[in-house]
Automatic annotation (TrEMBL):
It comes from Linum tenue. This is non-specific serine/threonine protein kinase. It catalyses: L-seryl-[protein] + ATP = O-phospho-L-seryl-[protein] + ADP + H(+); L-threonyl-[protein] + ATP = O-phospho-L-threonyl-[protein] + ADP + H(+). It is an enzyme of class 2 (transferase). One of its GO terms (molecular function) is ATP binding. Residues 1-272 form the Protein kinase domain.
Amino acid sequence: WQGLLPGGEEVAVKKLSYSSTQGYAEFENEVLLTAKLQHVNLVRLLGFCIDEEEHMLVYEFMPNNSLDKYLFDSVKRLQLNWRKRVEIIEGVTQGLLYLQKYSRLTVIHRDLKPSNILLDSGMNPRISDFGLARIFVRGAEEANTERVFATIGYAPPEYLNEGVYSAKSDVFSFGVLLLQIISGKIIASVYGEQKKLNLLDYAYEMWKDGRGMEVMDSSLDDSRSSCKLMTCLQISLLCVQGNPEDRPSMADVAFMLRNYTAALGIPLRPVFPRKDDVTMKRMPTNDLQACPEDETIWTELEAR
């Protein structure tokens, strides 16, 4: 919802609906976490309200909506030239680096995707929606949960299959996001000549065959950026490796993005977890929540 404070400031109001899959625990988690995090690339929480059944969060207003509304729209994507996409990539990178390394808390977002990247008046990115985020104790490398909530396509295999999450979980999600920013392609589709490849496999095959530029968004027609685009493609593939240990850290990602001539590792074929590969807990149909066009179904999964 869009609101107006008495002083005239526009705000965004997030209201927890009765049918929402986000329960009170997730609502409380989002309040406590977001209030402690301050960074130019994170959406800022202004206040909250808990009144019996009413649960609301008040955020600063982001007039340009979310990144998915531009990436996957044939007209609006033209507003995202290469320079602007670089700024968005760098902004999200810095936001994640802050969460993992520079904030007072070590935070794993666990739900990074285009619809959770909001854009301010200058089209600068703000990471939003911390309902599923978790705090890590300094020095801890990973944690485990028996209840897995994820958007399939953005969540890494170790989280979907075993309930294990770490900083490398967000690296995987960032890799998918980076690939979508440079390609303009949705995750829930098939690609290739036979239309049998998911986005990650398609990008890998094209990169391996030296045809990586064919993956890129056709609106990015500046040939001077081809080298940087190919570097971003390779970085995205490194981020979506099946083994978390094979993925770079966000600090490594930030370095590689700043130094396009730096030597990069050679990615193996990425792992794209499908719904069929994950053991799902049976749930009533009304507990499932539909996702936007570029996503699959939000659901609760049971770790194997």
